[in-house]
Amino acid sequence: MDSTTARPKDASRTRERILAAARREFARAGFAGTTVRAVAAAAEVSPNLITRYFGGKEGLFVAATEVRLDLERVFAGPRGSLGRRLAEGIVARWTGMEGEDPLLVLLRAAGERGEAAEALAAFLDRESLEPLRRQLLRYGLTEPEALARARAVDTFVLGVSARLRVLRDDLGDRAELTDWIADTVQHLLDAP
Question: Where is the HTH tetR-type domain (predicted)?
Fold first, then answer.
């Protein structure tokens, strides 16, 4: 390539391209099956850039699996429809992010990497369990009841996620899946 056709240098865009390729590779092949060379090839960069930006495969994995959930917008509304709002958000994420979802990458890697399992547990506690517990307290539940129901929902969603996304079962009809998750979550929130 001569200087007139070379891609302009943009460290931020290059870093994001590497992260997008890493998410796809980690989601497809897991941590053990992903190589720095494969990520570099997918991102169309030299492998030494991965070392420069991320310090190697471990640092790349940590960066590629950084994720935040914005549950506050889902929580806005009455308790009686919280299951529906949660289900719609969950299914939208599953069908919208596919293999690049950092949460899916963490979930798939949790079985092969102790660090990934710890990171997933900490993430779920911080981004899912604790916000849901606080919301249930705002709805008037007692502390023990709010914690128990939040744990039940968290466990259910994690199990369904593993079955449908890690084991790669067919998600089936999106509307039916959303209805089933909504009904089940609402039952976990409301059952005596």
Answer: 12-72
**What phi, psi does 50 have (nearest 5°)?**
-65, -40
Give the pLDDT band (50/70/90) at residue 182. Answer: very high
The torsion angle over the Cα atoms of residues 14, 16, 19 and 24, rounded to 10 degrees, is -100
pLDDT at 173 > cutoff 60: yes
Contact 67, 123 (CB under 8 A): yes
CB 16 within 8 A of CB 45: no
DSSP per residue, 73-116: HHHSS-GGGHHHHHHHHHHHHHHHHGGG-HHHHHHHHTTT-HHH
What is the spatial distance between Cα 147 and Cα 156, in angstroms, rounded to a whole number? 14
Three-class HEC string of 130-174: HHHHHHHHHCCCCHHHHHHHHHHHHHHHHHHHHHHHHCCCCCCCH
- What domains appear along the chain, each with residue ranges and CATH number? 11-64 (1.10.10.60), 72-190 (no CATH)
* C-alpha–C-alpha distance, residues 144 and 127, integer Å: 19
Which tens digit of pLDDT belongs to each residue from 16-70?
A: 999 989 888 887 787 888 899 999 999 999 999 999 999 888 888 878 877 777 7
Using CB atoms within 10 A of its CB, is residue 121 exposed (0-12), middle (13-18) or buried (19+)? middle
